[in-house]
Design a protein that fits this description.
Strand content: 5-15%
Number of helices: 8
Distance between the termini: 37 Å
Order of helices and strands: EHHHHHHHHEEEEEE
Length: 358
């Protein structure tokens, strides 16, 4: 079977995997309905060991499904399992400052303390601070006012109210310091990468710019004319709206949109290549004589010649030299890959990402 792996933004480990790692030893006992809850536990708590449907149910209406009640070692028919006056969803199993129910709703793991310090949306607020300010961990601009949540906190505007002072002007369109630059554009100067900006509808226009253009951040073709918002030209200046704020300085080597994964190790004796993808998958493939190894230039390479190599490179003078060809010697630990194609465990094609001119 042939599988092509594409680059993807890595963001958070799958909850199902986390549950498997955190579940108590009894989780490995008989589970006839395959719902992740052992039959013995289901019978004990008056659930149906022959129905997978009850894993997603919440009989005590405490905000936690039966599967989570099992994982957290709680009582599925008692909203306050420990009798301390707080509902189970309001408890904090991993003591990371975020309640169980909130973590689950945000696709975090209530038995992993480490996720409190993560910032998956790159808005300047780690997850525990998102909770404190009622932000969304996967949305850099929770209230869609044009300002990232972290900038809202720093500027003392509301993370959840798009018009904090009630003057009819969105917080992002205000000019807090009176320098003639809107708040939402001030933070553009401090963001390192274009990937720091959300584009929920993938239309090529950052969410924070959609309100300025009067387009819908949740609809790729706001006026339904068959043209994506990013390809429109609202000010008729000859530049598509999606490119108005674009600059090569906003692109970073290793941005998730161009990185597939990194080399973890390469064993020359058995030609085994280990790769960790940006979405957390660990892949092992065999390099054969038929494996095509090539270089692919990062989008940030703007000061090289047309082949992506420095004009003074000695190797370039060779008639047989091809700057796009890579070798197994280039498969060093930490090397970035922009793509990998494999079939039945054998690598067919591997693209290494070049971020510097030679």
């Amino acid at each position: 079977m042939k599988t092509t792996h594409k680059a993807a933004l890595a963001m958070i480990a799958a909850v199902a995997t986390s549950v498997a790692l955190a579940a108590p030893a009894s989780a490995h006992s008989r589970d006839r309905d395959g719902d992740g809850i052992p039959d013995k536990w289901e019978v004990q708590h008056r659930l149906n060991p022959r129905s997978a449907a009850d894993a997603s149910r919440d009989p005590d209406r405490d905000g936690l499904t039966n599967l989570w009640e099992f994982t957290l070692r709680l009582k599925p028919r008692n909203a306050d399992s420990d009798g301390d006056g707080r509902r189970d969803a309001a408890e904090d199993a991993d003591r990371d400052g975020m309640p169980n129910g909130w973590e689950i709703r945000q696709d975090l793991n209530p038995v992993d303390r480490g996720d409190a310090a993560e910032d998956p949306d790159h808005d300047g607020l780690v997850n525990v601070r998102e909770y404190r300010y009622r932000g969304a961990v996967a949305d850099e601009d929770t209230d869609d006012d044009g300002q990232d949540d972290g900038d809202e906190v720093q500027g003392r505007t509301s993370v959840t109210n798009p018009d904090s002072d009630g003057d009819g002007i969105l917080d992002g369109d205000e000019d807090r310091d009176g320098d003639g630059i809107a708040n939402e554009d001030e933070d553009d100067a401090t963001e390192d990468c274009i990937s720091d900006d959300d584009d929920a509808d993938s239309d090529g226009v950052a969410d924070e710019d959609e309100n300025e253009l009067g387009t819908d951040p949740s609809q790729a073709d706001s006026n339904e004319d068959g043209i994506a918002d990013g390809q429109e030209d609202a000010d008729e200046d000859g530049v598509e709206d999606g490119l108005e704020d674009w600059s090569e300085e906003d692109l970073c080597p290793g941005d998730p949109d161009e990185v597939y994964g990194v080399v973890v190790g390469f064993d020359e004796d058995d030609s085994q290549l280990e790769v960790e993808t940006t979405d957390g998958e660990h892949i092992v493939v065999t390099i054969t004589d038929d494996t095509e190894l090539r270089w692919e230039d990062s989008v940030t390479l703007s000061d090289c010649d047309e082949d992506g190599w420095d004009e003074e490179s000695d190797d370039e003078d060779s008639e047989d030299y091809d700057s796009s060809v890579a070798t197994v010697d280039d498969l060093t630990e930490g090397a970035a890959l922009s793509g990998l194609e494999e079939e039945d465990g054998e690598a067919i094609e591997i693209a290494l990402l070049r971020t510097e001119c030679a």
